Amino acid sequence: MKDSQLIRYSRHILLPEIEYEGQQKLLDSHCLIIGAGGLGSPVSMYLAASGIGKLTICDFDKVDLSNLQRQLLHNQDSLGMNKSLSAKKNLEKINSDIEIISITKKLDVKKMEELSKNANIIIDCSDNFKTRYALNQIAFNQRKPLVSGAAIKFDGQVSIYDFRDSNSPCYNCLFPNTDEELEVRCADHGVFSPLVGIIGACQAAEAMKLLLNIGKSLNGHLLLIDQKELKWRLLTIKKDKNCLVCSR
Ligand SMILES: [Zn+2]
Q1: How many domains does the chain have?
Q2: Which of 126, 98, 96, 120 is nearest to 36 (CA)?
Q3: Do the strands 221-226 and 121-124 form a parallel or antiparallel pair, or are they unpaired?
Q4: Considering the domain boundaries, does residue 219 fall inside one?
Q5: Residue 246, in any domain of the structure
């Protein structure tokens, strides 16, 4: 680590759970972030500031005025710009020490597989079930940890499927894919701005804990947040013996 990095990351290095070695681990890590919107904003901002050495950020969408209410990674200067390019531009202002790769094209399964092969952790910040199921299958196939998050209205959830552990349940155990169109979108229902910050910050924290191998993992659990009533609940997820993804 350079002197400037020792200063930049000093408040991590002071933590006995992290210290120099832990910070070096973060610098040597690579996270794949799918989606640079409401969840992708806090996730990528915290991971960039924390010195995750390499971030790959994917989003094919453009920054729209209606995004700025909650997607703090973007600003008025980014309007009309591709989100992953706007992400790269703004994250480099937070930390120019790290490598940021932006993927601007819509991802097919093959491309997702290729990108996740090179990453230590996959962080799902997408807004649709198709991507969530695809990432779940890919993470399972590649035995990678998947950090999943979602937020709508005042309700949010965070979970981890750590497929390095063969007993881990998967996203499909929790929400079996019925191929029905059940999409619930922010565009139709609205979302409370700070909620995406809370969920995204939780995803970033859990991803970093996995990289550092510290504390209690959310693996096998679902954190449900009702921010309106300020109710946080931690549920245990059981592996479904008949799951079409992880029990074959
Ligand atoms: Zn499963």
Answers
A1: 1
A2: 126
A3: unpaired
A4: yes
A5: no
* pTM metric for this prediction: 0.96
pLDDT tens for the chain, 248 residues: list them. Answer: 999 999 999 999 999 999 999 999 999 999 999 999 999 999 999 999 999 999 999 999 999 999 999 999 999 999 999 999 999 999 999 999 999 999 999 999 999 999 999 999 999 999 999 999 999 999 999 999 999 999 999 999 999 999 999 999 999 999 988 877 666 666 778 999 999 999 999 999 999 999 999 999 999 999 999 999 999 999 999 999 999 999 97
Within the chain, residue ranges assigned H as helices are 3-8, 10-13, 19-27, 40-49, 83-94, 109-117, 129-142, 171-174, 186-189, 193-212
Q: Which are the contacts of 182, defined by CB distance < 8 A and separation ≥ 6? A: 129
All residues with CB under 5 Å from ion ligand 1: 170, 172-173, 243, 245-246
CATH of the domain at 85: 3.40.50.720
Q: Is 92 part of any domain?
A: yes
Range(s) of the domain holding residue 150: 3-236
CA torsion sign, 41 to 32 to 201 to 147?
Answer: positive
* 178 alpha carbon – ligand 1 mean position (Å): 13
Assigned domain for 94 exists: yes
CA of 176 to the centre of ligand 1 (A): 8
**Residue 146 Cα to ligand 1 middle (Å):** 13
Centroid of ligand 1 to alpha carbon of 98 (angstroms): 34
**Distance between Cα 230 and ligand 1 center (Å):** 30
